[in-house]
């Protein structure tokens, strides 16, 4: 795909319109715990053991290990470089097109805006401020995230950074699956919804996984159509290998330091600190662009045969064995159109960057 070609990231279901519905008062809790299971998705001890006990070629360490305070600081070092184009290009695109994007959302008759995996909400404030200026009726914004402390902190910060007249800020504590189930329930089903997924987050999934997840949000549990106004997505369609390599393996080593931090974070888990196989010296960082899968992979490679006990379980790795840490897909327009069409979603609006094939 040429750099100037738009990558579609706003989708709307083409079906009979549902009339706007008032937001019920009982949805008014600032943060609603919507978890279907009290087994925390942040149970990193179990996830780490599960990942390292996978068969050869399938081992992984959970990327959530990278998102504690130190991990976020190291990631911030990546964002500060000029090489990490996804961050800079998305910000440029938002600033240039935010009023058009907000106008589309406002004109859809939506009652709820739900941001999936809301994170630090830095870009959210720009979107909601522009949207608030387009509204003449109340609207509720829900931030969906699995980390309660982060959710509370970021919602408070978002309130301080914005002066919204029409939008009320609330939180949903749970996973994507929990969010899809909550939106299908009786009290939320009648409401018209817009979903927002920024940061190319959808491409952290494989295309089949993305198809499945979009289906869970566009349909209810009994397979009827969800009352959906649209889905706003940010998608990176860059296929320039040199640009991608430079962004995900920054020349100053910031990316490698962040990826390797997963070992230190794992050593901080209960009972894992003495696990010699997690020593930094036993591993090297490897990043690679796969043009067939259109995906950049970050992994750790065992420098030697490793054999040890973690959490009372035997773990073995061969020399040269890769352990997957995190990946990022780069989807062209046709990729996105195909993924969405499998769930009956049509591309109705798109915006593009002027420099890199990054769009919404």
Folded structure, characterized:
The structure is a single chain. The protein is α/β, with parallel strands linked by helices. It folds into two domains: 10-40 and 84-239 and 331-359, Vaccinia Virus protein VP39 (Rossmann fold); 44-79 and 240-329, no CATH class. It contains eleven helices and 15 strands. The protein has helices at residues 44-52, 69-79, 85-106, 122-132, 148-161, 176-184, 186-189, 207-218, 241-248, 254-267, 333-341, and strands at 10-12, 31-33, 112-116, 139-145, 167-173, 193-197, 228-233, 235-236, 283-290, 295-302, 306-310, 313-317, 322-329, 346-349, 358-359. The radius of gyration is 21 Å and the shape is globular. The two termini are 16 Å apart. The model is unreliable at 1-29 (pLDDT under 50).
Topology:
Elements lengths: L9 E3 L18 E3 L10 H9 L16 H11 L5 H22 L5 E5 L5 H11 L6 E7 L2 H14 L5 E7 L2 H9 L1 H4 L3 E5 L9 H12 L9 E6 L1 E2 L4 H8 L5 H14 L15 E8 L4 E8 L3 E5 L2 E5 L4 E8 L3 H9 L4 E4 L8 E2 L1
Parallel strand pairs: 2-5, 3-4, 3-6, 4-5, 6-7
Antiparallel strand pairs: 1-7, 1-14, 8-15, 9-10, 10-13, 11-12
Helix pairs in contact: 2-10, 3-4
The biggest sheet, with number of strands, parallel, antiparallel or mixed sense and barrel status, is: 8 strands, mixed
Q: What fraction of the residues are assigned to beta strands by DSSP?
A: 15-25%
Distance between the termini: 16 Å
> Which architecture of the largest domain does the CATH hierarchy give at level 2?
3-Layer(aba) Sandwich
Residue share in helix: 25-40%
How are the strands ordered across the major sheet? 2-5-4-3-6-7-1-14
CATH class of the largest domain: Alpha Beta
Series of H and E elements: EEHHHEHEHEHHEHEEHHEEEEEHEE
Number of helices: 11
As for the CATH topology of the largest domain, it is: Rossmann fold
Instruction: Provide the structure class.
Output: alpha/beta
């Amino acid at each position: 795909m040429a750099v100037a070609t738009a990558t579609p990231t706003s989708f709307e279901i083409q079906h009979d319109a549902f009339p706007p519905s008032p937001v019920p008062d009982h949805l008014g809790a600032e943060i609603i715990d919507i978890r279907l299971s009290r087994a925390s998705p942040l149970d990193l001890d179990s996830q780490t053991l599960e990942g390292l006990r996978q068969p050869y070629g399938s081992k992984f360490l959970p990327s959530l290990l990278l998102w504690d305070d130190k991990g976020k600081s190291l990631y911030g070092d990546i964002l500060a470089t000029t090489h990490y184009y996804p961050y800079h290009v998305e910000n440029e695109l938002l600033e240039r097109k935010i009023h058009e994007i907000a106008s589309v959302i406002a004109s859809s008759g939506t009652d709820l805006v739900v941001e999936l995996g809301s994170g630090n909400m830095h870009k959210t404030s720009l979107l909601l401020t522009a949207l608030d200026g387009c509204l003449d009726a109340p609207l509720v914004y829900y931030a969906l995230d699995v980390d309660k402390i982060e959710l509370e902190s970021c919602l408070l910060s978002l309130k301080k950074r914005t002066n919204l007249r029409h939008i009320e800020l609330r939180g949903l504590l749970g996973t994507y699956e929990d969010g899809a189930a909550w939106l299908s329930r009786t009290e939320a089903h009648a409401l018209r919804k817009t979903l927002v997924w920024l940061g190319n987050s959808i491409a952290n999934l494989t295309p089949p996984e993305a198809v499945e997840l979009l289906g869970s949000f566009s349909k209810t549990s009994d397979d009827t159509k969800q009352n959906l106004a649209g889905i706003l997505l940010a998608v990176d369609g860059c296929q320039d290998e040199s640009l991608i390599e430079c962004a995900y393996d920054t020349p100053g080593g910031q990316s490698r330091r962040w990826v390797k931090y997963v070992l230190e974070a794992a050593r901080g888990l209960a009972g894992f600190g003495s696990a010699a196989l997690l020593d930094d010296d036993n591993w090297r960082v490897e990043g690679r662009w796969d043009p067939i899968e259109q995906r950049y992979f970050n992994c750790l490679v065992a420098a030697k045969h490793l054999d040890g006990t973690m959490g009372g379980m035997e773990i073995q790795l061969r020399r040269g064995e890769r352990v997957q840490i995190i990946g990022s897909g780069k989807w062209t327009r046709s990729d996105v159109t195909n993924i969405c069409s499998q769930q009956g979603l049509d591309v109705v609006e798109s915006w593009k960057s002027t420099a890199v094939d990054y769009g919404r």
